[in-house]
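Q: Could you fold this chain for me?
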Amino acid sequence: MREGMALAWQPQEEGLRQILTLLKESQSPDTTTQRAVQQKLEELNKYSDFNNYLIFVLTKLKSEDEPTRSLSGLILKNNVKAHFHKFPPEVAEFIKSECLNSVGDPSPLIHATVGILITTIAYKGELTNWTELLPRLCQMLDSEDYNVCEGAFGALQKICEDSAEVLDSEALDRPLNILIPKFLQFFKHSSPKIRSHAIACVNQFIISRTQILMMHIDQFLENLFHLASDEDPEVRKNVCRALVMLLEVRMDRLIPHMHSIIEYMLMRTQDSDDGVALEGCEFWLSLAEQPICKDALTPHLPRLIPVLVRGMKYSEIDIILLKGDVEDDEMIPDREEDIKPRFHKSKTHNQKHMDDNVEEDADSEDGLDDDNSLSDWNLRKCSAAALDVLANVLHEELLPVLLPILKETLFHQDWEIKESGILALGAIAEGCMNGMVPHLPELVPYLITCLNDKKALVRSITCWTLSRYSHWIVGQPHDMFLKPLMTELLKRVLDPNKRVQEAACSAFATLEEEACTELVPYLGFILETLVFAFNKYQHKNLLILYDAIGTLADSVGHHLNKQEYINLLMPPLIQKWNILKDDDKDLFPLLECLSSVATALQSGFLPYCEPVFKRCVSLVEQTLNQNMANAAHPDQFEAPDKDFMIVALDLLSGLAEGLNGHMEQLVLSSNIMQLLFQCMQDPIPEVRQSSFALLGDLSKACFQHVNPCISDFMPILGQNLNPEFISVCNNATWAIGEISVKLGNSCSDMKPYVPMVLNQLVVIINKPNTPKTLLENTAITIGRLGYVCPEEVAPMLQQFIRPWCASLRNIRDNEEKDSAFRGICSMIGVNPGGVVQDFIFFCDAVASWVSPKADLKQMFYEIFHGFKNQVGEANWTRFSEQLPAPLKERLLANYGV
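A: Sure. Below is the predicted structure, expressed as structure tokens.
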């Protein structure tokens, strides 16, 4: 190809032939050919007019077939994306003018490709450098030629999607002021495709409340209502989308029409077109978040609820895609692409509360994810989610409408209908629990029989629905529901169908979290089943099985430490551990599982600890080395996946917590302290978070190895007291507290570090909206610092005593609370004036103790009596009269004041 270029550019025969050959070859299915083509395309990019040839083939070469011409445009689009700033100005100009001349190409494929190319140039060369683009496209909208109008609209819609903000900026002179009124005119155009483009363009500007659109909001609504029953599904879809977004942004404008909008959305949710039905169903999810939801919906419930339940039924296409007719598939290996990536949740140190029974499980949508191969959002999931959120808004008011429907669906002959009824029953569990309680003694046994249904999809949804009621089930006498449920659910863990295995394993993990130590009598039976599943499961479910075993260990704790259980559980885990390579991501769930198991087994894990410890240290070291190599030579070495290091650090924490003193030998013969020093300075917050958790656990388990490093570690901990990274800050705070307690009575050792951390801790404890866990750990660490260095911390007492007391009044009695309160007592001894104004809060915090140790109780006694003597009898009586009666009684009973 020649380098020079005349103004009226014409291709050379030879160059054109070369490019056409390449385009033909690139359509070959053979990967080697494709690779060769890629290489040639890269080489051709050296010639400045190569891109002219590509645009020429796309827009001018009518003798070629359309797919080849379109491909030429797509290759040009990739070049624009990668190198547009390097195009010579005359090439860029030539491409732009050819694009504008071909917007109305009679072929839909060609004008769509031109549209994509235009938006890519606009996005790369920024709209500011192509001043004629918007005026020209705008002008083309009025063209008599339908292709020109439609092509221009297609391009404008893509520009609105990609560059919405720029279109409303001063830099471009706010083109939207012209465009929005223009788009609104086309809502009534005779072509459905153009109507659809027009709404889609305007829809891009609803959420950002663009000023010009807000000025025309009434016209916009009027036009939308006009299109409500449009015969074109794309138009109806865009109308639904607009109304869903307007709910969020301009509720005030919708309220007068709310009755008819709800009627309209009821029709759309049942639309014959699935895409429209899904957009319609989104409306109920959005409405549930609005304060007017209850009043607006109540009159429509008798019509809405049946529509949602009908929407939950599997469609025929779902059943085909889910292979719903395949009952036994446990022997078929999983396809790797069906396995979702897992994300590790790093370890966070938190406190137990007086009222804690169960951790709130944020992930309650499990059953809506039962169709993993269809993990796209569909009408079934949207209908179930809508029923779930509406149950949380309307609670028991839903039941008079829903119960008759459930009666009809749950016992239906047709398995698809029965399955949708079971899903609906699970969806309302959270919102309607109180109203459902009277029906559960009858429903739960029925559901347990459904676990044996002959259809796998019925068995799997039943697992999920039962798990949603597990809190209630665990609270009843075991023989009634828990025992039969466990027996049947564990059979389902060994189901011949993989989807059922997965649902049963997840449901069992939820049950474990609810039941905790109530499961101890059944541990042998549970473990035998879970271990049997090891040899049965394919790849994907194996990862869920690790989770169920880890959750079991977290739930029953040291009760797992019996030789017979260890002999069952450890061999299969260690066997998997030995098979997996260091770069296999399946290590994540296995390491998480082992971390829980090690913490639960404590000394029972000793026989396995050395190889596990060494491998974790090696994973950390490999990741750090790979990271250094990548930093030095990014072209030669890939960046490591730091999750390997994070998970390994967390398992080391689990070992330290479980093995306690036995950890000393392992740490002694390793370089873990040096590695930890590097991890604590990693730019990734999750790495630091796990490092500080491990540092805290090592301080408890083998302080003699932490002690020599304190002067290196403390400044890093101080720099990480930044509440923007809550979990990092939380674990750093906790580690500081653990170190100070271990330094114990030698104030001189800790004294140099107090100024590094104290001010920041006081800022955090006084910061509004700080999460409870962080406040509690901060209060404990301030107390512990005061326990070791009362003289240094006490002068600031007045600045933190009130939030300190408020943070610790709900925590259960434990060692951490004990050391923190000893610290506060010592500080009051040094600076009694610091507590005077907030003494009532101190009284309340002390009263939260159920059984303090005798010497701590004595400290409290002395402070109360000292205070009482200081202020005198009359003042004390006045003071104690402000106290709530229960508090007053406790102080009198326990401390004689």
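A (continued): The CA atoms of residues 493 and 504 lie 5 Å apart.
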